[in-house]
Amino acid sequence: MCIRVIGASNRRYAHIGDVIVVVIKETIPNTPLKRSEVIRAVIVHTRKELKRDNMMIIRYDDNAVVVIDQEGNLKGTQIFGAIARELRTSRFI
Amino acid sequence: MSRDSSGGFPVPGLSPLAGMVSTSSSRCMTTAASTTMDSSESVTDVPPRIKFKRLDKTAKHIMQILDKEAVEEVKGQREIPDIKPGYIVQLKVEVPENKQRVSTVKGIVIARRNAGLNNTFRIRRMVAGVGVESLFPLYSPNIKEIKVVDKKKVRRAKLYYLRNKMNALR
């Protein structure tokens, strides 16, 4: 669950490629992350459309994030699912 | 010229404004004597109303012609098949930033919006277990090739009900 959007002080909304602070609500067993841990993550999928300059629009069926640490490096080793190109231009992979 | 024959043809934007000004002035004065004077004034000021505007002077018509020309030009360059909802379509989309890779996109067309040059269509596909909907302009120069693979029978123009049905790998 999202607690905070990193950026300006009263920033309301985050889109694909933004870093947010999340708290973990439920986990599958045997993972290094536990419930009610507060960590940072970057948004990779949103149900809200992502608009590109050439009038192409991408809309995912779910909202998904990828967990990162404070510097911006990935915490895990694998990412499941497709990643939009916008994340390549910013400093993530 | 045909314009001279109609006799004092004003700019079409001005004639309703002139009519409004004279009617508002006639409304302000209430005495009977002055209303007759005002009515004669309004008759001489406002020209007879013209029902049909000259088509080649309206911007809407000019924009329609420009739109059609642009569509014809794009159609002459590339071959763009007819795309209807329910078709399964395979696209080759060029990535403008890298300009190196031509990625293939294959999915079912769920909607099509007709707007001249801005014809757009939506494709729904499953990418790695997640449903993804993409909207593409039909005449975009980034779309290199469109190929219709299959046609499904549908009874709707917009297949948004597939969003609830196609969640196979959630």
Automatic annotation (TrEMBL), chain A:
InterPro entries: Ribosomal_uL14, Ribosomal_uL14_sf. SUPFAM superfamilies: Ribosomal protein L14 (SSF50193). GO terms for cellular component: cytosolic large ribosomal subunit. It holds the Pfam family Ribosomal_L14. GO terms for biological process: translation. SMART domains: Ribosomal_L14 (SM01374). One of its GO terms (molecular function) is large ribosomal subunit rRNA binding. Keywords: Ribonucleoprotein, Ribosomal protein, RNA-binding, rRNA-binding. Belongs to the universal ribosomal protein uL14 family. This is 50S ribosomal protein L14, chloroplastic. It comes from Gossypium davidsonii (Davidson's cotton).
TrEMBL record, chain B:
Keywords: Ribonucleoprotein, Ribosomal protein. SUPFAM superfamilies: Translation proteins SH3-like domain. Residues 1-22 are annotated as: Disordered. GO terms for molecular function: structural constituent of ribosome. GO terms for cellular component: ribonucleoprotein complex; ribosome. Belongs to the bacterial ribosomal protein bL19 family. This is Ribosomal protein L19. The lineage of its organism: Eukaryota, Viridiplantae, Streptophyta, Embryophyta, Tracheophyta.
